[in-house]
Specification:
Elements: E1 6-10, H1 19-23, H2 37-43, E2 47-49, E3 52-55, E4 59-65, H3 66-76, H4 79-96, E5 106-112, E6 120-124, E7 139-144, E8 151-156, E9 162-165, E10 178-182, E11 191-195, E12 200-204, E13 210-214, E14 219-226, E15 235-236, H5 259-267, E16 278-288, E17 300-305, E18 319-324, E19 329-333, E20 336-340, E21 344-349, E22 352-357, E23 367-381, E24 385-387, E25 406-407, E26 425-429, E27 434-438, E28 445-448, E29 454-457, E30 467-469, E31 474-477, E32 480-485
Parallel strand pairs: 4-5, 11-15
Antiparallel strand pairs: 1-6, 2-3, 4-6, 7-8, 7-14, 9-10, 10-11, 12-13, 13-14, 16-23, 16-32, 17-18, 17-25, 18-19, 19-20, 21-22, 22-23, 24-26, 26-27, 27-30, 28-29, 28-31, 31-32
Length: 486
C-alpha cells in the first residue's frame, strides 16, 4: 500500500515561525543534520524516473503548537503565520521550480494541541490538497454511525484528485484500514475504495448511503453529496476473492498478507482527511443595556473605530459609539458628541459608514442597538471548537475584550464579563452548516438570518441535539454577532 501522506515531526525549533529553520539546516555538516522540510520533499518526490525526481509535491500543511498559533493571533492578528507560509512558498519555488510544472505552491498553518513547544509537524503527499482561495467545493463527505446524526468528514474540490478518510473525528476503525475517495472531475462520479483491498465490506444502499463494515463488525455510514445539488451516485469498488493456491505469499501485495501484517502495514501509513472549511465572521456588535448590570458598577461602554472605520484596538480612535448607564447612545468624534437613536447612520468614510440599527423586539430587553462592522473580522473554523471568554482560538473575534472599552468596572474587567460566559457555545462545521451546542445554562444565544432578522433563540444544550446554523446566518452570544461563512 503506498503512502498517501508523508508526515514528519520536526523538533528543537526555537522559533516555529522561522521559515529558514524549518526549510533547511545551515552549513554542510550532513551527518549531523536533522532532516528538515526541504530534505523531506527531496526524499519523497511525487513522481520519479529511476532514482531521478521528475515532479515534487506542492501543497504542504504545517501543524504548529496551538499556544504559538493563539499568541500570533492575539499579538499580530496572524501576520507571523502568513509571513511563514509566504516565505516557505518562495523557498519551495526557488529550490524546486524545475519540478513543479504548472502546480501552484500552497502552504497552510493550523494549530495542534498534541505538539510540544518547538515542534512542527509537516504533511504533504498525494492525498494532501489545499484549495485555491476562490475554489468552490465539489463534493461534501459526511459520516454517521446511526444514520440520524451526520457530521462533516471532508470537502472535495474540483482539482483534488484524492482524499483519504481515515483519521477524521469519529473514525471508528482504528488502524484496520482507510477509505480512498477518487475524484475524476466534475463530470464524473466519485469512486470510493477501501485500502488495503478487503479491509472493509463496502455496500451502497438504496438511500444513497455507503455502508462500511470492518472485519470486527464495526459500522460507519458515509454520504457523498455533490455541492449544491442532489446526492452523487457513489461507485463502490468491488474485488473478487482470489482462489487459494500453493504459490508462495507475495509480500509486495497487500491483499495477500495475513491480517496482523495488514494492520501493521496500515498503522505505519499516515492518512489525512481535511476538515470542513468555514469561517466565523464578526459581522456586528450588539450593544447591551447597561441598566441591567448596575450591580457591576459599569457606567459606560465604548466601541472605538479608526479613520477607515475598522475597530480600533490600539491608539486614538477617530469615532466612538458609546452606551451609558441609562442606555443612551452617543457618537463621539473630534468635533464633539451627539446623541443618537437607532436607526442612525454616522461617520461616513468613502462608501462606508457606521450603521446603528434597532434590536429585534425579542432581544430589546437585553440589547439597546446593533452596530454593523464596516470591516468584519473573520476566524477560520475547520474543526470542533468553543466560543467564549475562555476560548483562545476565537479570541480575535472578541474585540471588546479589553478594559479600554469599559468604565466603572472593578479591576481590569472587560465588557465580555457582563454578557459572555467562559464557554458560551461549542461548534462543529458540517456539510449543512455549523452545529451549535450551548455550553452554559446562563448564556443567551439568538439566531438571526442572513439579513440580521430575528429567527429565534438557540436552546440546544450540551447533551442534546445540536442546533444547525445555516451558512450565511448569524448567532448572537454576548455582544458578538457572528456569521457562519461556509
Amino acid at each position: 500500500m503506498p503512502t498517501y501522506v508523508q508526515h514528519e515531526v520536526l523538533g528543537r525549533i526555537p522559533d516555529v515561525f522561522n521559515a529558514e529553520a524549518i526549510w533547511q539546516a545551515p552549513g554542510l555538516a550532513l551527518f549531523a543534520r536533522r532532516p528538515l522540510l526541504r530534505d523531506l520533499l527531496e526524499r519523497c518526490p511525487r513522481e520519479q524516473r529511476g532514482r531521478a525526481a521528475t515532479r515534487c509535491f506542492a501543497h504542504v500543511t504545517l501543524r504548529l503548537p496551538q499556544e504559538d498559533v493563539d499568541d500570533d493571533y492575539h499579538l499580530t492578528r496572524g501576520n507571523r503565520a502568513r509571513e511563514l507560509t509566504d516565505t516557505l512558498a518562495a523557498l519551495h519555488r526557488k529550490d524546486f521550480g524545475d519540478l513543479l510544472g504548472e502546480d501552484d505552491v500552497r502552504y497552510h498553518v493550523v494549530g495542534a494541541d498534541d505538539l510540544a513547544a518547538g515542534e512542527i509537524e509537516v504533511r504533504f503527499g498525494h492525498a494532501v490538497y489545499l484549495p485555491a482561495p476562490s475554489e468552490k467545493v465539489l463534493f461534501d463527505v459526511t459520516a454517521s454511525t446511526d444514520g440520524v446524526n451526520w457530521h462533516s468528514v471532508c470537502p472535495v474540490y474540483p482539482q483534488q484528485r484524492l482524499a483519504m478518510i481515515g483519521d477524521a473525528p469519529g473514525w471508528p476503525f482504528g488502524t484496520d484500514g482507510v477509505l480512498l475517495l477518487i475524484n475524476d472531475g466534475p463530470d464524473a462520479e466519485p469512486v470510493l475504495q477501501a485500502r488495503p483491498k478487503g479491509a472493509f465490506d463496502c455496500r451502497l444502499d438504496a438511500a444513497g448511503h455507503y455502508t462500511v463494515t470492518s472485519r470486527s463488525g464495526k459500522r460507519l455510514l458515509l454520504k457523498v453529496t455533490r455541492s449544491g445539488a442532489a446526492p452523487a451516485r457513489v461507485t463502490p469498488a468491488v474485488w473478487k476473492p482470489r482462489a487459494r493456491t500453493e504459490a508462495p505469499v507475495r509480500t509486495d501485495d497487500p491483499t495477500a498478507l495475513p491480517l496482523a501484517a495488514l494492520r501493521a502495514e496500515t498503522a505505519s501509513d499516515a492518512t489525512y482527511a481535511p476538515g470542513a472549511r468555514g469561517r466565523l465572521t464578526l459581522a456586528a456588535l450588539a450593544l447591551p443595556r447597561l441598566s441591567r448590570y448596575r450591580g457591576t458598577g459599569v457606567t459606560r461602554l465604548e466601541v472605538p473605530f479608526d479613520g477607515a472605520l475598522a475597530f480600533c484596538a490600539t491608539g486614538t480612535p477617530a469615532v466612538t459609539i458609546t452606551v451609558d448607564a441609562t442606555d443612551a447612545l452617543q457618537v463621539v468624534s473630534c468635533t464633539g458628541s451627539e446623541r443618537i437613536s437607532p436607526p442612525a447612520t454616522c461617520a461616513a468614510h468613502g462608501e462606508q459608514a457606521l450603521h446603528v440599527a434597532p434590536m429585534p423586539a425579542a432581544m430589546a430587553e437585553r440589547y439597546s442597538a446593533m452596530v454593523a462592522l464596516p470591516q468584519p473580522i473573520a476566524a477560520n473554523v475547520n474543526a470542533k471548537g468553543v466560543f467564549g471568554r475562555g476560548s483562545l482560538a476565537m479570541a480575535a473575534l472578541r474585540v471588546l475584550d479589553t478594559a479600554r472599552c469599559i468604565t466603572g468596572a472593578d479591576g481590569a474587567a472587560s465588557p465580555d464579563r457582563i454578557g459572555l460566559s467562559r464557554s458560551a457555545f461549542s461548534f462543529e462545521p458540517s456539510a449543512q452548516g455549523l452545529l451549535l451546542l450551548r455550553q452554559s445554562a446562563n448564556q443567551a444565544l439568538y439566531h438571526l438570518d442572513a439579513a440580521l432578522g430575528y429567527v429565534g433563540t438557540i436552546d440546544a444544550a450540551e447533551g442534546g441535539e445540536p442546533f444547525l446554523l445555516p451558512p450565511g446566518h448569524h448567532v448572537v452570544a454576548g455582544h458578538y454577532v457572528l456569521r457562519y461563512d461556509a
